[in-house]
Amino acid sequence: MRWIWIDRFLEFETGKRAVAIKNVSLAEEHLHDHFPGRPTMPNSLITEGIAQTGGLLVGEYHSFEKKVVLAKLSKAVFHFPAIPGDTLRYEAVINDINDTGAAITATAHVGDRLQAEVEMMFAHLDDPQTSQNNFEPKNFVFTLKLLGVFEVGRKPDGSRLTEPPGLVNLERVLKAIG
Amino acid sequence: MATMSQSEVFEKVQTVLCDALGVDEDEVTPEATLFGDLNAESIDMLDIVFRLEKSFDIKISRNELFPEEVLTNPEYVQGGKVTPTGIAELRKRIPFVNLDGFAANPNVKDFANLFSVQDIVRFVETKLPK
């Protein structure tokens, strides 16, 4: 199972910004108890969706060679609750990025309404002990493909973001074992 | 850019630290220590670096402000204490921090508490055009 809190990328500019959407649906079980009689998308999961939008943007910048972890939430302001039927539009912009980590600013909108304003930092771990399966680049590439990044992704020169070589082979392997 | 006075540098550093650490301006005194008084954590150093770079239009390389890798190097740290070679290396790497007190009893765990607001100001001054 994958812990994915965005549905699809709409825009993806390498090293710069990404836009993703999350459709809030009453079919999601967690909304049945949050809150009883008043389903509300938890702001913590909106933050997670934003972190995934920004985290994949940051990870892709270094070709997923670095292990990107959410390290600091500098700001998180929520203006109204998101409810079933809403489409949340997350936009993450990289403010700073270097070998050690990255800082992003992000917003969530429902239609034209500003739902959330978030600032967060990601750290690049280089401890080899944390090189578990979850941090393997192929996992990220698989997730990016699932989320449509290669349909909308653009490099700084405007050319299309392409799937890294080797992914085709990986897919064959996954199908074979799947 | 015109040369900045020390008080101008201090004021900008103060703003950076207030924003990065969510502390009040009156807490950010020159003597306040980052990790002790202002409760900074290690990720905050990167936040501070990014904000200093923007605020002063300077570039700060990895480990320039906080030489983490010196403190994890077995040549420089033995039995939880920084060796004389380690102290010499630190003096070279972070001359903007006063290491005299620390050198007398160089417990690694006390190292983080050395960094004061004034040290950050001195560091920034070394990076500004003369």
Shape of chain B: globular
Indicate the proportion of strand residues of chain A.
Answer: 25-35%
The CATH superfamily name of chain A is Hotdog Thioesterase
Order of helices and strands of chain A: EEHEEEEHHEH
Low-confidence stretches of chain B: none
CATH level-four homologous superfamily name of the largest domain in chain B = ACP-like
CATH class of chain A: Alpha Beta
Seen as an oligomer or otherwise, the chain set is heterodimer
Top-tier CATH class of the largest domain in chain B: Mainly Alpha
- Which band does the percent of strand residues of chain B land in? under 5%
As for the CATH topology of chain A, it is Thiol Ester Dehydrase, Chain A
Can you walk me through this structure?
The complex is a heterodimer of chains A (178) and B (130). In chain A, 25% of the residues lie in helices and 34% in strands. Chain A is an alpha+beta fold and 178 residues long. The mean pLDDT of chain A is 87. Chain B has 130 residues and is mainly alpha-helical. The termini of chain B are close together. Chains A and B meet through strand 3 of A and helix 2 of B.
Write the layout of secondary structure elements.
The complex is a heterodimer of chains A (178) and B (130).
Chain A (H helix, E strand, L loop, with lengths): L7 E6 L3 E7 L19 H19 L5 E12 L8 E11 L3 E10 L2 E13 L11 H10 L2 H4 E2 L12 H11 L1
Parallel strand pairs in A: 1-7
Antiparallel strand pairs in A: 1-2, 2-4, 3-6, 4-5, 5-6
Chain B lengths: L5 H16 L20 H15 L11 H4 L5 E2 L2 E2 L1 H10 L6 H5 L3 H4 L5 H11 L3
Antiparallel strand pairs in B: 1-2
Helix pairs in contact in B: 1-2, 1-7
Give keywords:
heterodimer, A: 178 residues, alpha+beta, Thiol Ester Dehydrase, Chain A, seven-stranded mixed β-sheet, 4 helices, 7 strands, 34% strand, B: 130 residues, mainly alpha, Non-ribosomal Peptide Synthetase Peptidyl Carrier Protein, Chain A, 2 domains, two-stranded antiparallel ribbon, 7 helices, 2 strands
